[in-house]
C-alpha cells in the first residue's frame, strides 16, 4: 500500500485503493486533493476512490464531508458527486461532518437553484405547503394517501404480551397486510374508520418532518413492543420503497421530558450502525411531532416460527446475529433486548441453512424504555439474562447480549423458550437453575449443548467474554454440522 507521498501516478494509487479499500484511510487527504487537479480523469478517479473507501470504512465519511465542504461552492462537479453519494448513502454521518454554517448555506443554495428537497432538520418541519391532501385525492407528489382497500383493524391481542408466542405477523416486524390494489374497499365499522382516520392524521403530521417526497398508507397499524407499526409506501429521490412506519409508544405522563431526547439518541445510534447487512435499516426518524422512525420491513421474526429449526440453519441464523452484535459492540452499542421478537427472518425456510439474512431489530431501544415501562412488555422474561432480575449478577452490558443470543439459539433448536411457567417460576429458574441443554429436547451433538450452556451461564465471568468468542464457536459447530470445514466467509466486524 502506497502512502500519500509515493511516486506512483494518481491512477495507480487509486487502483491500489480498489485492491484494499478498507485499509486505505491513510490516503484520504491525498485523494481529496485529487479533486482539485486539472485533469478531469484524475478528479473522477479520486472521487470514485473516496466513495469506495466510504463503503468499506463508513467512519471515514465524517472526515471526507468536512474536507468537501469548502469545495461545494466552487463549481467542483467531482466534489459535488462525492457529496451527493455520501449524503444519500450515509445521511447521518454526512450531517455530523457538516458545520451548521455550511449546512445552512448549502440548504439555501439548493432551494435557490430549485434542486430536490433537502431533508428537514430534526424537530423542525419543512416550510412547504400542500404536502398532505385528504383521503380520496390520488397518489400525487407530497401526498399522504391512505389505501382503503387494505384495512387492518387493530388486533385485540397485544403483540408485546410475553406470556405467549405470537404466530401472526405483528411482532415488531413492521409487516402488515399486503396491498390489493384492484380490490374493493371493505365495509368498515365506525371504530375501524376512526382508527384509520387517526392514523392518517398522524402520518399527515409526520410527513412534513420527513425526507420523503411521497407517502401512502398501505395498511392500518399493528401493536408492537415499542411502537405501533403501519406499512407505508414511500418515494424518495425517485425510488419507491415499502417501509414500516413506527409510531413510538409514549410512557406514562409523569415520564421526564428527557425521554424524547433519549429515544432520539438511541435511534441515531441505531441508524449510525445500520449499514451492517444484519442490522435493520433506519431510513429516517425524528422526535417531532412525536417520536417515529421509518424502517425496513420483514416477513416474520423468530417468534413467528413455532417449529424447531434444523441445527445447521439455527447456527447460521445465530452467526448472522453474532455478526450484527459484534459490529454494534465495536461501535459502542449494546442491544440489551434480544429475544425471538427482535430477529427478523425475511422468507426463511427450514431448507435454507445458509445465508438466511437474519436481521437485528430494535437496536438499543430497551435501555430507553425499561426505566419508564414494565420491562417485561419489551423483553420476554423467559429469555432475559439474570442481571435483569438481580444486580448481584452484574450490570447490563455486552455480555447480556451473549446470554440472550444463547437463549435465542436454544429457541431456534428446540422450538420452545429456555424456561417455562409463570413469571415467578421463570425468575427463580433463571436465577437458580442450571442453564438448559438443547439435547434434552432434540437430537443435537454435545458440542451444541456446550455452546448454549456457556453462552447462558448465570455469572458473566463464566460466559463467553465477547460476542466474537461466541461467534468462533458458532462457526466451528456450524462447520461440523455441515461438513464444510470452515469455509464460511467471515463477515466484516469492524
List strands and helices in order, with pairings.
Elements lengths: L9 H10 L8 H7 L5 H17 L4 H8 L8 H13 L1 H7 L2 H14 L30 E3 L43 H18 L6 E10 L3 E10 L2 E10 L9 H15 L9 E5 L5 E4 L15 H20 L12 E2 L14 E2 L5 H4 L28 H17 L8 H10 L13 H10 L11 H16 L12
Parallel strand pairs: 1-2
Antiparallel strand pairs: 2-3, 3-4, 4-6, 5-6, 7-8
Helix pairs in contact: 1-3, 2-3, 3-5, 4-6, 5-6, 10-12, 10-15, 12-14, 14-15
What's the short version?
The chain is α+β, with helices and mostly antiparallel strands. It has helices at residues 10-19, 28-34, 40-56, 61-68, 77-89, 91-97, 100-113, 190-207, 258-272, 311-330, 366-369, 398-414, 423-432, 446-455, 467-482, and strands spanning 144-146, 214-223, 227-236, 239-248, 282-286, 292-295, 343-344, 359-360.
Explain what you see.
The chain is an alpha+beta fold and 494 residues long. It has 3 domains: 10-113; 144-295, Phosphorylase Kinase, domain 1; 305-482, Transferase(Phosphotransferase) domain 1 (Transferase(Phosphotransferase), domain 1). 38% of the residues lie in helices and 9% in strands. The protein contains 15 helices and 8 strands. It has helices spanning 10-19, 28-34, 40-56, 61-68, 77-89, 91-97, 100-113, 190-207, 258-272, 311-330, 366-369, 398-414, 423-432, 446-455, 467-482, and strands at 144-146, 214-223, 227-236, 239-248, 282-286, 292-295, 343-344, 359-360. A 6-stranded mixed β-sheet has the order 1-2-3-4-6-5, sandwiched between helices. Strands 7-8 form a two-stranded antiparallel ribbon. Strand 3 (227-236) and strand 4 (239-248) form a beta hairpin. It is globular and about 75 Å long. The chain starts with 9 loop residues before the first helix and ends in a 12-residue tail after the last helix.
